From TrEMBL:
It is a multi-pass membrane protein. The chain crosses the membrane at residues 43-63, 102-120, 132-152, 158-177, 189-210, 257-280. PROSITE patterns: ABC_TM1 (PS50928). Residues 94-278 form the ABC transmembrane type-1 domain. Belongs to the binding-protein-dependent transport system permease family. Pfam families: BPD_transp_1. It comes from Petropleomorpha daqingensis. It is found in: Cell membrane. It comes from the Bacteria. Its main location: membrane. This is NitT/TauT family transport system permease protein. InterPro entries: MetI-like, MetI-like_sf.
Amino acid sequence: MAIDLRTPNVAEDRSVVAGLDELETPVAAPAGPSLGRRFVRSVLPPVVFLAVLVGVWQLVYVLKLKPSYALPGPADVADTFWHTVQDGRATEAIWTSLSRGAFGFALSLVIGTLLGLAMWSSRWLRAAIGPIVSGLQSLPSVAWVPAAIIWFQLTDAAIYTVVLLGAVPSIANGLLTGMKQVPPLFDRVGRVLGLSAIGRVRYVLLPAALPGYLGGLRQGWAFAWRSLMAAELITYSPRLGQGLGQLLNIGRELSQMSLVITSIVLILVVGVAIELLVFAPLERGVLARRGLTTSR
């Protein structure tokens, strides 16, 4: 009796093809959490924390653990905050600081990216200035303010110098770290495909290093914002306008603690807004496109 040896192979081949087709079938992303669940998970915790914080603050104020000029009550600070918003000082200060921060961060982005690429491409350069760049990253930006004032007097150039020295090392190190984590095979594949050095960086290495680069950008913005506040706090001059740091300094000079706290709250609100509106969505998009997370 003849035995058909092909039948099991055909069935196995069909099974393999079906499995491959199944792998290529797009998988529907799981449904995200409901609006109520997202509210409970993301919005409610900070609201509860702020309520507890204000309650403790009010309790300390009522018990008079500190004199009222040193620690005003929440109602006094809320009143000062509202008047600062009404008379336009808050808007002016936010716009002045935010425009400086955006311009300084854009400059830092260009310089830090070029510096990071140069350090990645040259082992000698990386050995020569790598430790200095890392050291600058840990140096408090306020240390540069006196030098910047001596170099550029009380001008915007002094403020931007401090911002650059605070943000550029973080961006360069973030890019360098991301490039180091790219498998060498990617670069070899780019060479095999005939890409030039710029083409490999543009189409292969930078996209592969994007998560690390994005972390460096986020850290660079944080350093830029802190550096800007330190510079504005010290480089006070009517010619420079009134940023958030200058508003904070005015509160200190007037010994008006409610204005000091109002300025701190505005600085914090701007920092949180930039994080929530710019960097968090950007990071979620990059990670989602790479299949590293499904949560949005």
